[in-house]
Amino acid sequence: MAKILIRGGTVVTMNRKREVLEGADVLIDGRRIAQVIWPGSLSPRGPWSKDFGGTRKGPASPGGRRDEDEGSRFRSSRERCCSSLTSLSGAEGARTGADSGTGGEGDIGAYSAGMDHNGSCGAALGAEVHELPVGVHRHDVDMVIDAAGKVVLPGFVQAHVHLCQTLFRGQADDLELLDWLKKRIWPLEGAHDEESVYWSAMLGIAELIRGGTTSIIDMETVHHTESAFWAIDSSGIRAASGKVMMDYGPDVPATLMESTEDSLRESEALLERWHMHDDGRIRYAFAPRFVVSCSDRLLARVRDMARAAGVLVHTHASENRGEIELVQQDRGMRNVVCLHELGLIGPNLVLAHCIWLDDEEMAILRDSGTKVVHCPSSNLKLASGIAKVPEMLEMGVFVSMGADGAPCNNNLDMFQEMRHAALIQKVRLGPTALPAPTVLEMATIGGARAMGLEDEIGSIEPGKRADIVILDLDAPHAVPAEGVDVVSRVVYEATASDVETTIVDGRVLMYRRKLLAFDENEVIREATRALRRVLERSGCL
Ligand SMILES: [Zn+2]
């Protein structure tokens, strides 16, 4: 596994003390952060402690499926991505001659050439090697990234996205939730095929990596979820994902309706195949769509299976007034109360939206440690409402953030989510309602908590997984910086295009705005082609 040194940035740690360290170095060893070096706050751990560095088992070859789709474009894309990631993690063999010369260009060039389809980044990376910090030797470092004048952040965690919907960006504008689902999204999802789900996921992941999101909780569609896992696996992003479950309700189209047993069987097979894949980078999460489209029997079985496997349950709840009326009519109780009655409420339950809650429901969420995901852009665009985020935080409810799907947003951009989250509460409750530090907390460590990974990701601390992004804020929209708090700059000024480097699990997925793990142009081309096919099949043209 590679050893990477990020030099001299303004490190927004998001640790317990919320320290911001000016001119700090971050040392990455393999998949983990080995050390944060800053005068006066040296880590007790040695720079290259042997405790660190996971063992990569190599790219996935999910059971039996590779032979079946021999020759398809997306298979070859997957394999190229996988081999690229292998190179990313296999740099040790190239670390020779690092003590000689002025910057170890040879080994660092070799390292980057392994990551880069064009091999064009090598010289640039090598040229960045300057003086190393005390206690770090040249032969210890595979790659040095100069972050002087830049902002180093923990990667964003989007705790609610739908990668399978990225193809449908712009295909369902200006509708409210239930019409949006019934008229556009469900027919489109029902027309997906194995390849279209793959390219949809790759497109979403490209956008996420470009915008500094390193981890997601993802809800797929009813069919072809395996394809999304292939995309997650080959792209290098961290994800908990699951197939959506829909076995109930008069409005579910035939293309998506499934039997309870089929839904459970397929979910269980995906769980067995993908949970904890690649040293835990990929996890399974059961994903019943929402109470309206799930039977009590399905939800009860999901509760038991998730508990037995120790995995998340991810669903939508109380997003829309029409939705909670349907639950009230059908189940005779409010939405969160229904989930509580079914025994689903608890620390492993991740609820997207939670806009229309009464006091009793908020107390249930707080007392149970249930996780809420706030999706402000989606809530505004679908005219769903404004979640009572400050009130929930004040009560002690865990709140994280996510962009939801591309067709209800229409981006997967955490900077937009942070900005919207902060601004919409100011209109309700005044300018101090949801300050920038609280918003950044929800976008990083809050999301880590939603994933149940707060000890692994969400902050820059020794021992945690190396999920890190670097922002270059030296641009007209984000200067002057004199006297401006860096967290304010990130939340109120920065944009996704300011992210120049994205690292997940110690692998550099984007460097200087160039995606290294896969061919972005191929993804755009194939996603566009796949959409045409899905539109024709769905009848939505
Ligand atoms: Zn959603």
Structural features, described:
The protein has 541 residues and is α/β, with parallel strands linked by helices. Helix 2 runs antiparallel to helix 3 (105-115), helix 5 (177-190) packs across helix 20 and helix 17 crosses helix 19 (486-493). The strands form 2 sheets. Strands 1, 2, 3, 4, 5, 15, 16, 17 and 18 form a 9-stranded mixed β-sheet that branches. Strands 6, 7, 8, 9, 10, 11, 12, 13 and 14 form a 9-stranded parallel β-sheet that branches. It contains 20 helices and 18 strands. The chain has 2 domains: 3-153 and 461-523, Urease, subunit C, domain 1; 156-450, Metal-dependent hydrolases (TIM Barrel), CATH 3.20.20.140. It has helices spanning 65-68, 73-89, 105-115, 122-127, 177-190, 194-210, 225-235, 260-274, 277-280, 296-309, 321-331, 335-341, 359-368, 376-381, 389-395, 414-429, 436-443, 445-450, 486-493, 520-538, and strands spanning 3-12, 20-29, 32-37, 143-146, 151-154, 156-161, 213-219, 238-242, 244-245, 282-288, 312-317, 349-353, 371-374, 398-401, 468-471, 499-504, 507-511, 514-515. Helix 7 (225-235) links the parallel strand 7 and strand 8 (238-242). Helix content is 39%, strand content 18%. The structure holds zinc ion. Zinc ion is lined by residues 160, 162, 316, 352, 404-405.
How would you briefly describe this protein structure?
This protein is an alpha/beta fold and 541 residues long. The protein has helices spanning 65-68, 73-89, 105-115, 122-127, 177-190, 194-210, 225-235, 260-274, 277-280, 296-309, 321-331, 335-341, 359-368, 376-381, 389-395, 414-429, 436-443, 445-450, 486-493, 520-538, and strands at residues 3-12, 20-29, 32-37, 143-146, 151-154, 156-161, 213-219, 238-242, 244-245, 282-288, 312-317, 349-353, 371-374, 398-401, 468-471, 499-504, 507-511, 514-515.
